[in-house]
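Field log, afternoon session.

UNIT: design team B
ACTIVITY: writing a sequence onto a fixed backbone
BACKBONE:
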């Protein structure tokens, strides 16, 4: 009888090497948390818990980060306003920040435009800007009281993606969790 292999869930007892092998996109999250030794391989034998504790994270913070990675990479999270896995979703945090920035900067914008262009260190990059009017052929996503505009080409590269807004100790900004990205760079703005 063949043994069924299931997708491994992330837990704090996994080594950083196992995590990087199974979920290479987790490097970006760990680097945002100040664990910069992930990319160089210096701490591959440490568990996630040891690595984060060594960087001053409490048990509660470690558990929250492990949950966040499971939600992002293991399909345990529920996406806001999702009609199907083919559509782009926008979290409440992202929608709130879009509205806040439009108001703060006195923009005559009606939403946010996301585009994907050639460039960046991994081949393609995200471009985000305020949009003042809908263009012919746009895909318009309405979520949590705001609008996000995409071209047909960008939509094809972002199917199933999630637009989020995250704040951390070292940075804050919009984050696109794109299941179509095979490789991403450390900045998170460039992918392939």
């Amino acid at each position: 009888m063949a043994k069924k292999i299931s997708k491994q869930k992330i837990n704090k007892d996994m080594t950083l090497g196992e995590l990087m092998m199974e979920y290479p996109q987790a490097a970006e999250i760990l680097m945002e948390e100040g664990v910069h030794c992930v990319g160089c391989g210096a701490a591959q034998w440490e568990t996630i818990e040891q690595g984060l504790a060594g960087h001053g994270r409490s048990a509660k913070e470690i558990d929250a980060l492990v949950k966040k990675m499971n939600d992002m990479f293991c399909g345990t999270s529920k996406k806001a306003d999702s009609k199907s896995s083919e559509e782009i979703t926008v979290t409440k945090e992202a929608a709130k920040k879009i509205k806040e920035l439009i108001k703060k900067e006195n923009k005559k914008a009606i939403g946010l435009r996301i585009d994907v262009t050639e460039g960046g260190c991994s081949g393609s990059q995200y471009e985000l800007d305020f949009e003042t009017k809908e263009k012919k052929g746009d895909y318009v996503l309405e979520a949590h009281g705001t609008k996000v505009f995409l071209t047909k080409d960008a939509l094809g590269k972002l199917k199933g993606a999630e637009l989020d807004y995250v704040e951390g100790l070292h940075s804050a900004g919009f984050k696109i969790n794109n299941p179509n990205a095979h490789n991403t760079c450390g900045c998170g703005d460039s992918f392939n």
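LOG NOTE: The longest helix spans residues 59-73.
NEXT ACTIVITY: expression trials, pending approval
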